[in-house]
Amino acid sequence: MTRRVVRIAMNGVTGRMGYRQHLVRSILAIREQGGLELGDGDVLWPEPVLVGRREHALRALAERHGLDPDAVSCDLDAVLADESVEIYFDAQVTSAREAAIRKAIAAGKHVYTEKPTATGLDGALELARLARTAGVKHGVVQDKLFLPGLLKLKRLIDGGFFGRVLSVRGEFGYWVFEGDWQPAQRPSWNYRAEDGGGIVVDMFPHWEYVLHELFGPVRTVQAVTATHVPQRWDEMGKPYQATADDAAYGIFQLDGGIVAQINSSWTVRVNRDELVEFQVDGTEGSAAAGLRTCRVQHRSATPKPVWNPDLPVTESFRDQWQEVPDNHPEGGEFDNGFKAQWELFLRHVVLDEPYTWDLLAGARGVQLAELGLASAAEGRRLDVPELSL
C-alpha cells in the first residue's frame, strides 16, 4: 500500500461549520477510516494545517484531535509559501474569503471553499477566471446535493417518477435566539450586513445549486426580504442593531416553466419534520424531501380530497404518502454530505477525476443572492443571465 499525503491549509476551522463539518466530520473522519482509497492499493492521507487568527485556539484543536502541534499558523502568507501544502480550504467569514482565495490561487494552490465565494458577483467571477488561468483545480462546497433526502429525490427525477415537473416548494429555517435570554445558535455577524451577513447571502447560493442541479437553471428571481428581529445580543451579551435580512421569501422561474417557491427564515418556529423540506409536484407524482427522508405519492395512489369546512378531517394526509427506502446507489449507508464532497474533490485533485462544482458554479450562487437582494429593493422580478468566463 502506498500512502499519498496531501497537506491542506484549512482556514477558519475555529468557526462552527469549519470545525464541525469540515475538520471533524470530513478530514478527520477520512483519517479515522484509514484514509481515502484511490485504487490499486493507494491511499490518500489528508494532513490538515490549521490556519486562523487565534493561535491558542488552533493549538487547542490540534491537541484535542492528536494533530501535529506545529501545523498551526496565524500567518496565511507563510502557509501558502510552503510548497508541501497543495490545497487551500476557506471557511472564514464571507468578507475575508475573496482576498484569501486570491492569494492561494497566486501561490498555485488548489482551492476548495465554502460559499458564498465572494461578497459580489464581479469578485466571484474574477476568482473563477484567476483559477482557470492559473490552471489550479477549484471546488465550492455544495453540500445539500449529498444529503440522503436530496439523493433520493434525484433518484426519483432520474427515474422519471414525476412525469413533467410543475413546481418546487421549499421551507427552510428555525428560530435563532436573539441572544438575550438564551445564547444565539448563529454568530452575530450573520445579522450585520456590513460584515457580510444576511439570510439571502447565506441561503440563496444553496438554492441556486439545488435548483440548478436537480431541476434546471434559474431564469428569473423575485424576492421579498425582512429584518423581523431588529435587535439582537452578541457573543459578549451586548445589544446591537440587526442590519441584515433574517428572512427571505423567493419565487424562482426555471427552465421548462417550473416554478420554485422557497421561504428562508431564522425567525420561524419549526412545524415540519426537518429543518429544510422540499415538495416537488409533477404530472405523474409528488415527493417531499428533507435532510434524510423522502416521501412520495404517485398519481395512481393520489386520494380525492374535497373541500368542506363544515366537517372535521377524517384522515391523515401525511399517512397517504410512502417512504422512499434508503437504497444507496453504491450500497452501504449514506455518508456525511460534507465528507462525501471532500472525497470527490480530493480524488479530483489527485486523480484528475471529473468535478463540476467549481468557482463558476459558486459565482452563480453569488449572482442569485445579489439579484435576490436587488429584486427585494426594487420590488420587481429580475432576469438571471447565464454566466460565462
Tell me what you see in this structure.
The protein is an alpha/beta fold and 389 residues long. The protein has nine helices and 18 strands. Strand 12 (247-254) and strand 13 form a beta hairpin. The mean pLDDT is 95.
SSE blueprint and pairings:
Layout (H helix, E strand, L loop, with lengths): L1 E10 L4 H17 L3 E4 L2 E10 L3 H10 L7 E2 L2 H6 L3 E6 L3 H13 L3 E4 L7 H14 L3 E3 L7 H11 L6 E9 L25 H16 L3 E9 L4 E3 L5 E3 L5 E8 L4 E7 L10 E7 L2 E5 L4 E5 L23 E2 L13 H15 L7 H20 L3 E2 L6
Parallel strand pairs: 1-3, 1-5, 3-4, 5-6, 6-7, 8-13
Antiparallel strand pairs: 2-3, 8-14, 9-12, 9-18, 10-11, 12-13, 14-15, 15-16, 16-17
Helix pairs in contact: 1-8, 4-5, 5-9, 7-9
Mean pLDDT: 95
By helix and strand content, what is the structural category? alpha/beta
**Secondary-structure element string:** EHEEHEHEHEHEHEHEEEEEEEEEHHE
Radius of gyration: 22 Å
Give the overall shape: globular
